[in-house]
Amino acid sequence: MSEFSGKFVKVSEASPHVFLVELNRKPLNAFSKEFWVEYGEIFDKINLKSHDVRAIVISSANPKIFTAGIDFQSFAEIENFGSEQARRAYHSREYILAFQNAINAPGRCPFPVIAAVHGPAIGLGVDIISACDVRYASSDATFSIKEVNFGLAADIGTLAYLPKITSNDSLARELAYTAQTFSAAEAAKLGLVSKVVDGGREGVVKSALDLARLIATKSPIAIASTKQLLNHSRDHSVSANLEYTSIWNGAMIHTADLKQAAIAQATKSKESPSFQPLRKVQGKL
């Protein structure tokens, strides 16, 4: 879809309400500043345009690799921040915050974003998928939290997310401290991915799109609310989340989707209810 696609990110409508977003910077999907700025802007544009998107799958257009991570030539920009230490540090912080904001754009979407990983996902690749709701990997996928090999701590999201989204803190720390490459099976053991699909790109993208299509049949209000409450729970205590949920659902319980879903359940209809878009689409409700 040319309306949303950019120079390095290809967007297509895989099926009604489901978009496929593909990383597409040759040769290895290495991220320059222009690439990560575009990535964040495209997600925000899809979100704000509200073309009744109900799920997105992120993958790579390159059949051999998800991403090689950072294009280190882009670090030359940091050299232009000046020589005065305090100002240099201030501008570096702004740069990192903008980078984080772009890569975390999927979290701002009210619909689920599913990562379909094949081949190597190096460094920033782990940041990217950590910001997604669901992560699938092909059996040929490999991962590495590579930053310590370059004298840095991972700073775009991996270290913030891993303790929250994985179930093996010891393994997460081991992999972050050593920069060792780990397999799709080890990613599943870590809890980073929820499904490993035999084969390569074609199989994992198909599996992720099947999941996206299933999610797209559900009430957009219910899915957006579920994502909002899960994200809040990740970042807050149980008691705080329960209080927040009472306020959120106190408003959302008045949705017309509830009646439609109840009727479909009661009549055991084989067809999914037809739900209204979450927001206006092309000026219409």
- The fraction of residues assigned to DSSP E strands is 15-25%
**Total DSSP helices:** 10
State the order of secondary-structure elements, H for helix, E for strand.
EEEHEEHEEHEEHHEHEHHHH
How confident is the prediction overall: mean pLDDT? 93
Number of strands: 11
Return the CATH topology of the largest domain.
2-enoyl-CoA Hydratase, Chain A, domain 1
Give the neighbour order of strands across the main sheet.
1-2-4-6-8-11
Q: Structural class given helices, strands, pairing?
A: alpha/beta
Given as residue ranges, the uncertain stretches (5+ residues, pLDDT < 50) are none
Integer-rounded radius of gyration: 20 Å
CATH hierarchy, class of the largest domain: Alpha Beta
Largest sheet: 6 strands, mixed
What would you call the shape?
Answer: globular
Name given to the CATH homologous superfamily of the largest domain: 2-enoyl-CoA Hydratase, Chain A, domain 1
Mind telling me which CATH architecture of the largest domain this is? Answer: Alpha-Beta Complex
* N- to C-terminal distance: 22 Å
Q: Indicate the percent of residues in helices.
A: 40-55%
How many domains in all?
A: 2
Protein name: Enoyl-CoA hydratase
InterPro entries: ClpP/crotonase-like_dom_sf, Ech1-like, Enoyl-CoA_hydra/iso, Enoyl-CoA_hydra_C
Pathway: Lipid metabolism; fatty acid beta-oxidation
Keywords: Fatty acid metabolism, Isomerase, Lipid metabolism
Core attributes:
285 residues, alpha/beta, 2-enoyl-CoA Hydratase, Chain A, domain 1, Lyase 2-enoyl-coa Hydratase, Chain  A, domain 2, 2 domains, 6-stranded mixed β-sheet, 3-stranded mixed β-sheet, 10 helices, 11 strands, 15% strand, globular, Enoyl-CoA_hydra_C, Enoyl-CoA_hydra/iso, fatty acid metabolism, delta(3,5)-delta(2,4)-dienoyl-CoA isomerase activity
